[in-house]
Every structure is written in C-alpha cells, then in structure tokens.
Design a protein that fits this description.
- It is a single chain.
- The chain is mainly α.
- The protein is built from 48 helices and seven strands.
Length: about 1000
C-alpha cells in the first residue's frame, strides 16, 4: 500500500499487496452491514492489524474507514500519539467527544443517564475537580454502557483506533475488556499497532487479538514486484527492472520508505534507469533518521522551529499555538507551513481547521528526538503555559510539565495538583499519581508539602498501598500540619496499612493519634478507628479488654455525631460476635443507623456500615440487612465504586440471601462478587470473603466436588488470612473436609479454630459454628465430648436468644444425641427454626426429624415432616437435600405428592393476617382465637411470613408494608 502526493497537495492512494487484508475486512463488513437492521443477531467483531513502523497500517486503516463510510456505517475514530501516551483517556475522548459535542448538554445528560457523573469527567465533558472519585472499573463500566448504547442506536458502527501502541493506559484497559463484547453487537472494532512497541501494561491488549482462535493481520514488507509496480506507477512505464530492484533493496520493502524514495526520485527528476542507481543511496538516506533531519534543516531555521513546536504540542498543535511556541510571526509561519508540506514533512490540511500534523508518525518521532535536550525542555515549558492560557485545562499543561526539569515553580505545582484532581475524578489514579510525584520533586512550598504527600498517598492507595504507606508516614512527619489534615492523613495511613495486611500497625497508628490529639472529636474518631482495626486483627492479644473498653465508651456517649454512630455500630458488631443477647446488639445497631451510615464517605470508609447491616443478619433479621445492602450497593454504583467495594457488597448480599435460604440467588451474587475481586487482585480480603461464602453455598446445595475444585483453584484453606474474615476460612474448609469424609483433618482444624477464637471471646455459633461442626465430626469417636461441645454451643445460643441460633444449635445437638433425647431436641429445633427466617436450616431439620421418626416406626408423622422438608428444600434450591427427602419418603413406602410451595416473596392473605397481629404484640393463641383457627396453623403461617420477609417475630413491625401497618387491616380475613 502506498500514498503519492503531488506538489499541489493532491493525494491519490494506490494499494499494493494488501488484497488479502482488504478481502478479510470486506467479509467482516458484509457480516456487519448485511445483518444489521434485519432483526437477526448482531455480528460484529475485532480486526487487529499489526506491523512495524512504515508497513502501511495507517494507509490500510484509511482505506478501512473509506469502505465503512461507503457502506453507510457510523464511524468512531481515534489515533494514539507518542507524546500523549500518559494523558489518561486521551484516545477515548477522540472516539466519543465528536458524538457528544454534536448534541446539547441536556441531550448529553439524557444519553449518559445515571452514568453522567461517572463518565463525563473521563470523556472531557466536565472538569473533574470536585465530587467523589469513581474507581477505574466504574468508569470502564460506564464507557461500556455508553459505547454499547451508541452502537445499538447507530448500527452498524465501525470503531477504529490507529497507532494503538501509543494509546494511553486507561484507554487500552477499557478497550481490552470491551472488545470482547463486539461480537454480540452491531460493532466492528479495528485496531492497528506496532507489536514491538506495545508497553508492558498492554498485556491484555496484546492477548486480545489471539482470543477465540483468531490472530492479528501481520503486515509484511513489499516484495520486489510491488516496489517495481510502485516505481512504474509514479515514474512511468520506462522504469527498468534493475533500478526498481535497487529501490527495493535500499528500503527493504518498507512501504513508507519506498514511497518516500520514489517521491524523492520524482522530485529530483531522476530517470528510473539502472545507470542512475548510484544516486539512490543518497536519496534513500534522506527518507529516515538523520537524513530526514538534514533535509528538514535545509528548509531553514523557521521550518525547523515549527516542526519542533508541532512535535512538542502533539494533538494540540494548531497554527496559532504552534507559532507561539516556535516564536514565528504570521508571514514566517505561513511560509514555513507551505515549505514543510511541499517537503512531505507536514501533512496536507485535514478535517480539523488549523490543525498541524506530520505527514507520517515516523517523521514526528524523528523530529522530536532531534530536538536538543535543553531546547526540548524549554519548549515544553512554553507549551505548558500556552495550553493553559488557551483554556485546555490542567491535564494538558501537566503533560508538558512532566517533561520539564524541577525548578521550584509554584505555578507548576498548582497545575500538577489540579491535573491530579481531574484525573482522580475521571477514574485515572495512576495518572494522578504521576502528576503528584512530579509535584513533590518540583518541590512544593514547605506549607504545601504535607498536602501533596497526602494527595499522593491517596492516589496510590488502590494500586500501590505499600507506596501509600511511605508517603503518608512522610506526611505525618511534616512540621507544617493542620489538625484536620493530620487527622485525614492518619485515617488514610491506617487504611493503607490494613490493605497491606498490617492490621496491628493500623490499630497502633490511630491509637497513638488518639492519645496525642488535643481535639475531643479527633480523639473520638481515632478511638473508633482503633476499635475497628483491632476487631479485624487475627492476632489481637486482649480482645476481651478491647470489648470492655468499647462497651464502656458506647454506654457513655451523649451525642450522635458520625464518630459516635461508628462507635455504636462497632459495639453492635462486637456484642453479636461475642454472643451477648441479640436485643443488645440490635439496640446498638438501630442507634448507629440514626442519622445514616453512608457507604461511600471517603473519609470514613464502608466497613462499619457493612458490619451494622450484617449484625441484623446474624440476629435473625436478614431482611433488614438485605435492604441496607441493596441501598449501599446502589450508592456505590451511583458513585462509580465498582471495584473492591462492589465486590464486597455483592458477595455479602449473597451471604444474606444464603441466610434467608435463597441459595441460587446467593450463589449468583457471590459469583459476581468473586469475578470483580479477581479483577482487583489476588489473595485479597474480597476474595477470601467470596470464596468462603461460595463454598458454604455449594455445600448447602450438595455440590461437594465443585466446592473442592474452587478451593483448589484458589488455594483456599491452605493459607490462613491475617485479618478476620467471615465466614471463618478454617471453619469453612473444615466443613468441606467433613463433606468429603475427612473427619480427622476436620477435627484438627476445628480445634485450632476454637483455640484461636475462644480467647478473644468470639463465641457466637451464629457467627462461627465451630462447636457444632466439631461435635458432628467427633460424634462417632467420642460421643460424650461431642454431646458436651454441642450443649456448650446450645447454652451460648440460648444466651444470644434468637430462634435461628437456638434452632441451629438444637439441630446440631440432636444429631450427636441418641434415643428420646435426640427426638425431643430435633422436634424443638424444628419449632425454633419455624420462628426464624432460616429457611434452609428449617428444611434440614424437617428432613432430619422426619427421617428419625421414620426409623422410630412413626411413618405418618414422618411423612408430613419429610414432605414439608422436601418443599422447603426445593424452594431454597438445596437440590441434594431435596433428593434426600425423596429417598426418605420412598424408604418409608411413601410417594411424594405434588409440591405445594410457590416461590414468591408476597405474603398470602392468611400470612398477612397473622403477621400484622403478631407485629402488634399478639401471641399465637390470641391470633388463633381471633381468626378461628388452630394455634399450630398460626405457627406455620408465621413461619412462612418469617421466611419471606427475612425476619423473626421481633423484626416484623419494621418490615411489613407501610400501607397495611397498624391496627387497620383492610382486606384481611377476619376484619
């Protein structure tokens, strides 16, 4: 493929030896255009064009664009630039800004919808100096939504990125993930790049073209025959073969060099005959490298300075700005532009009026590298000021400041800090970190240094928490430190230490600040942080003492500011974990929520709001926890927090669904959370939480082999986290060992869990059921100890006081007991679980109780329990338990009747009637008398309401629909 250009600027393109590439594109274009609008599935895809510099990628891309436009496709096009590789979302903005700039602000907000605040800063619609910073994944998700919507509404669409090896890191990260969707959209993505120049961070992009068995189009140099055709095409049919062969040899078939050499021959007026071959070497040397620069210098100093300015400015190079940076007057500028275009150094006028660009990227690279180092630095300084004066924003100026030498310039520090704020708001923390690191070297004024260190530490928190620790420790050592800033730095430092698995240091740093500070509010805030990080430590030495101090502090709080509410929330969680009465934990949790506990407050974190919500779950009110998590996840999504925060949210919401007996729904949510955690990193808390919960759910559904494969894939159970996670990883892995029949190994691990948790006072079997599991494990080898351990768990559960905890403990105790005691405890377990929202555990107890009665010779009593257990298991998605219930029924000589249960969260009219009366404090006998039914019927109706609403009796009033709450029960039978 080649391009020839006449002196008048007229361009004509002739394509050589690219027929196969164009045929492939035509085929993909036919699939795209032939199917779009016909009601059939979209058939987009990815076309990757790879080749070294000068092999004709840009010319081929231009032909691709021409063909796509001729077929009526909508085009989105962008091009990487060597000097702007570090400007976040630079290429994305080229793709989408023309689309968004063509409509009004009102229409833009309509197009972006709820994604506006997340995506708008990244695509350059608004400045990013204020608001909550989204995480990178949130921005990528928003871009996915925007481009998907555009592709569907403007089908068929061809998205082209040329020189992708120079695209910014943020664009490449987005494109690498989004391109996988192209085959499901009316969208063809075409990327062209130099494979040998792809940066290290482009590993996913490099693999992109080889997925699904495809490979990139690897462009090759021209053959001698193609160069001969080129020579004849430009210089006439009189060109002899040996002359053409020499042209090929001197250029190695590189299309750009061959075209330029032939153009030089034409300009020189050299006849294309072998007798003139001796002059070709001189002409060939002027095509590239030093020869190109020598040719440029012969055009005069004005032309040289102009090319330097264009090289430095990059895509910001228009006539006025280039003239200012080059120091040229209007006439001198016009003359230089004309001569440079004639010399094929600058390109002919393009689509953007006044825009200056090089004829080929190779020219721009050669020119930039030829600028003397001192002059290059000075010109970047002039460019920084020029783009700032032109209103192009701090990020445009920062690109140039990054190329300058530190000079103790306050203006440069201000620009870099402003650029960092813009980048953070755009979801580009790496770009922000580069700006702030450079600002620190400028250096900033003494009074600004701590602020810059703090901002730098915050920008690196997600990706480089260890580096964050160093910066924030340095910030704390600064002498010029305002109290508010010191508090913020201390909080962030503790957070960074926790992220690097240094919980003890995190707790120590906030404890020290609590002692040092003279501000009452700061001391209280730091006390809250100390309690929090100590609670997450797996190696805390004196947890009971910390619990006593926390209880004393919580009981003496007289106000309800944010710090106070966080302390109350921590007190609620601690009370639950220790197994104090559930009503105590719930009282503190309710007080913590008064005034709100936002999930996305960057200065406080989301850990305590999560703990408060989970307190409700463990206290038999998972419906309330469900509501709080749903609100929190929505808050995260609105702010663009779609990384670790969203992973935790989805994972723990799945855990709540598990506690409500909704196993399939819970599994889906946890899988989603684990996928996000995998993108964030390996061996991180988000993964530990997701893996433990997912293994729990898989075991509950009877998929033991799948649970084991998951454990093996992530090395779960082989490494004990330094932080407290829930469910406890050792206890979960022990449960997996029990399911596999490896009871000896399970026993050893469970005893280790007890030795670890018991000294800390973490005794609640609802939070970690190591005692019931251990009792089950040793029941055959040491029944006396098993019974004693199960009774101990039951005693703790009774103190905790929720029907769910008592029912679970009774169920476990019944399984290790014998005879009449076993039957009595199992019957009581069923009655307790009927009073809780624990649908899966109730199903287990029903099946176990039915099986016991069947073996005791009471088939009729067994049948009712087994049938209820079967219905409940099927409703929960507990396939293995349902199969066991069918087997037990068959073994009793009974055939399962048609299942009666309907999977719905809506209360029946009978359930509403009894639930509303129970919420008003009526006991079951009074309700039965009022409705003219049996007390047992009331119990069963309430059990259904508890399961559907996700609460026990105590939480009914808070979850029943507002419109029917109170004494008026319109439409309810009996009124």
């Amino acid at each position: 493929m080649a391009e020839t250009r006449g002196r008048g600027g007229y361009s004509r393109r002739t394509l050589f030896e690219r027929d196969d590439e164009l045929l492939l594109f035509d085929s993909m274009l036919n699939d795209l255009c032939g199917r779009a609008g016909e009601g059939s599935a979209p058939n987009g895809g990815l076309l990757a064009i790879a080749g070294s510099a000068g092999l004709g990628k840009t010319t081929l891309v231009a032909e691709v664009r021409r063909k796509a436009a001729a077929r009526g496709c909508t085009l989105l096009a962008a091009r990487g630039n060597e000097q702007e590789e570090g400007v976040a979302f630079h290429v994305v903005r080229q793709l989408v800004q023309p689309v968004l700039a063509a409509v009004s602000e009102e229409e833009r907000r309509k197009i972006l919808g709820s994604w506006y605040d997340i995506v708008a800063p990244a695509v350059g619609l608004i400045a990013g100096g204020s608001g909550v910073a989204p995480d990178p994944q949130g921005v990528r998700d928003g871009l996915d939504w925007l481009v998907t919507r555009f592709a569907v509404q403007n089908a068929p669409v061809v998205l082209v990125v040329d020189d992708a090896h120079w695209a910014d890191e943020e664009t490449l990260a987005w494109l690498s993930s989004f391109a996988l969707r192209a085959s499901d959209l009316p969208l063809l993505i075409v990327v062209a790049y130099r494979p040998e120049e792809l940066p290290r961070h482009a590993a996913e992009f490099r693999r992109l073209a080889t997925r699904h068995g495809s490979r990139p189009l690897d462009l090759t140099p021209f053959t001698p025959a193609a160069v001969a055709d080129l020579v004849r095409n430009v210089l006439g049919e009189g060109a002899d073969e040996l002359f053409s062969r020499e042209c090929w040899a001197l250029t190695a078939g590189n299309p750009y060099e061959a075209v330029e050499l032939v153009a030089r021959i034409r300009d020189r007026g050299l006849k294309p005959q072998y007798v003139n071959a001796g002059e070709l070497r001189e002409l060939a040397s002027a095509v590239r490298g030093s020869g190109l620069i020598e040719r440029l210098e012969r055009l005069g100093p004005s032309a040289v300075r102009l090319t330097w300015a264009v090289a430095v400015l990059g895509t910001d190079a228009d006539r006025d700005m280039s003239a200012g940076v080059a120091g040229l007057g209007a006439e001198e500028m016009a003359d230089a532009v004309e001569r440079l275009r004639e010399a094929r150094i600058l390109a002919a006028p393009q689509d953007i009026p006044g825009r200056l660009d090089f004829f080929h990227p190779l020219v721009g690279t050669a020119v930039y590298r030829s600028i003397p180092a001192a002059m290059r630095v000075a010109m970047h300084g002039q460019a920084a000021f020029s783009v700032s004066e032109a209103g192009l924003g701090a990020t445009a100026a920062a690109r140039h400041i990054l190329e300058m030498h530190p000079e103790n310039d306050r203006w440069a520090v201000r620009q870099l800090r402003a650029a960092a704020r813009d980048y953070l708001r755009a979801g580009a923390p790496d770009a922000a970190r580069r700006c702030l690191a450079r600002a620190l070297r400028e250096p900033p004024a003494l009074e600004e240094r701590a602020e810059v260190l703090f901002e730098l530490g915050c920008s690196a928190l997600l990706n480089e928490p260890a580096t964050t620790v160093n910066h924030l420790k340095a910030a704390l050592e600064e002498t010029e430190l305002a109290p508010e800033l010191r508090e913020a730095i201390t909080y962030r430092l503790a957070q960074a230490l926790a992220h690097t698995d240094r919980m003890a240091e995190a707790a120590d740093i906030v404890a020290a600040e609590a002692k040092r500070s003279t501000s009452a509010s700061t001391r209280l805030r730091m006390q809250a942080e100390t309690f929090q990080w100590n609670a997450f430590r797996a190696d805390e030495e004196d947890s009971p003492a910390r619990s006593r101090r926390l209880a004393k502090l919580a009981d003496h709080l007289t106000t309800r500011g944010k710090a106070e509410r966080y302390i109350l929330g921590l007190r609620a969680w601690d009370a639950m974990v220790r197994g104090e009465p559930a009503e105590t934990a719930l009282r503190y949790a309710e007080e913590a929520l008064e005034g709100g506990l936002p999930w996305t407050d960057e200065n406080w974190g989301f850990e305590v709001p999560v703990l408060v919500a989970l307190t409700f779950m463990y206290c038999d009110q998972p419906g309330r926890a469900d509501d709080l998590f749903t609100q929190g996840i929505a808050e995260c999504e609105r702010k663009g927090w779609r990384g670790a925060h969203l992973s935790f949210g989805l994972t723990l919401l799945g855990y709540i669904k598990f506690h409500r007996g909704r196993l399939a729904e819970g599994e889906d949510l946890v899988h989603s959370g684990l996928r996000i955690a995998d993108r964030v990193g390996q061996q991180i808390p988000a993964q530990w939480f997701a893996l433990g919960i997912l293994i729990n759910i898989l075991l509950a559904r009877g998929r033991v082999q799948e649970a084991q494969e998951l454990s093996d894939r992530y090395n779960y159970g082989q490494v004990v986290p330094n932080a407290v996670v829930y469910p406890d990883s050792e206890a979960v892995y022990s449960e997996l060992l029990i399911a596999r029949g490896l009871r000896t190994d399970a026993e050893e691990r469970l005893r280790a869990v007890g030795r670890r948790l018991e000294p800390r006072g973490m005794r609640n079997p609802m939070w970690c059921p190591w005692r019931p599991l251990l009792a089950q494990t040793i029941a055959h080898t040491d029944p006396a100890e098993a019974a004693a351990i199960a009774q101990e768990a039951l005693d703790i559960a009774r103190r905790f006081g929720t029907p769910g905890a008592i029912g679970r403990a009774l169920h476990a105790a019944a399984k290790v007991a014998s005879g009449a005691d076993s039957l009595a405890m199992m019957a009581e377990a069923v009655r307790q679980l009927e009073r809780s929202p624990a649908a899966f555990e109730l199903a287990q107890a029903l099946v176990d109780h039915g099986a016991m009665l069947s073996r005791a010779g009471l088939p009729q009593d067994a049948a009712d329990l087994l049938m209820r257990g079967l219905e409940s298991a099927a409703l929960c998605g507990a396939d293995a338990l349902a199969a066991r219930a069918r087997e037990e029924l068959a073994a009793s000589g009974l055939r399962p009747l048609q299942l009666r249960t309907i999977d719905s969260d809506l209360l029946t009219s009978q359930e509403k009637a009894v639930a509303h009366r129970a919420a008003q404090g009526w006991d079951n006998r009074r309700i039965a008398e009022e409705l003219g039914t049996k007390e047992r019927t009331v119990e069963l109706l309430l059990s259904g309401a508890f399961r559907k609403l996700g609460t026990n009796r105590d939480g009914l009033a808070g979850l029943l629909p507002q419109q029917t709450r109170g004494t008026g029960l319109k439409g309810v039978p009996g009124h």
